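Homework help board

Subject: predicted structure for assignment chain

Our instructor gave us this sequence and asked us to write out the predicted structure in token form, then describe one feature. I got the tokens but I'm not sure how to describe them. Can anyone check?
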Amino acid sequence: MDKDIKRFSYSRFKTFHTCPQKHHYAYVEQIETPESKYTIPGKLFHQALELFLKGEEFEKPLKEFETLCKTGKLDYEFDLLTDVFYNYVNYYSNEFRKERTIAVEENIVDDLEDGDYLLVIVDQVYDTKGYTIIRDHKTTLSTFKYDYDSVLNNQQLLMYVPFVESKLGLKVDVIEIDEIRLAKLEAVPLNANGKPTVDKKRLELVTFGAYKNKLDELGLSGKKEYDYILDLLATRGHPLFKRTTVQLLDNKKIQTNLQDLTNTYKTIKTSPGPYRVRGPLCGYCDYSDLCDLDMSQPTQRDREIMIQKIKSK
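My token output:
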């Protein structure tokens, strides 16, 4: 039996909650799907950041991204990842100097039952200003997704806390999601009259500093018509980077979360069989064609043909 069948993780629990049929395809039958072109940039950014945090040479993942773009395997600007990475490191340079990294990509294994085991992989644990913090890096190709409440109730981070405390022998004070938008900053758009736009939609990838500098350059500083935009950009923060932190004050939330995950594990173990949950995301599921085929009680040969099709997409 493949060892991975015995491995459980937050991603596996989440997949089961989304659709038990998808869980069956991915984790029981272990039908592998090709890596998405949308997830590769984030994976390579994580690899580069891991090396950076460990004080090692971090250029290789960035060069790999360039190669994939230049050979047509990815449809992005070849220097996108390098541009974002160096902007990220420079933007948080002061914070990095104040932080002491305790662990990076920490793998924690916990035994369950019947040979099953839980694998927890934590992006970063660090301390600063007397607080110990679990930081989870999230890359996105679109807009930011997390606010205070979504971090406060984040099942994945709450799951990490007791395992990190046990493995590293410390008390976690704060959980944090570090969002990185994989996009390039843009210059301040100018209107036909040569003045900076006040259309906030056109300023999505413009920094407060760039906008203010443009006003200074054009002699428009202090003009009231730009106060609204300056306030908006200052409040929004950096267009590519956002960190949301939550101090842990209620241990009951952590214990309740652990019990929910335990219940999910027991449900997976005792579930009478796979069943699908039809929803709006079904059309985007890698297994949707196989799922539809299985509803017609196909022959094993028909299933194998479909499975090979899925694997080679």
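Reply (TA_rk): Your tokens look well-formed. For the description, you could write something like this. The longest strand covers residues 100-111. That's the kind of observation they're looking for.
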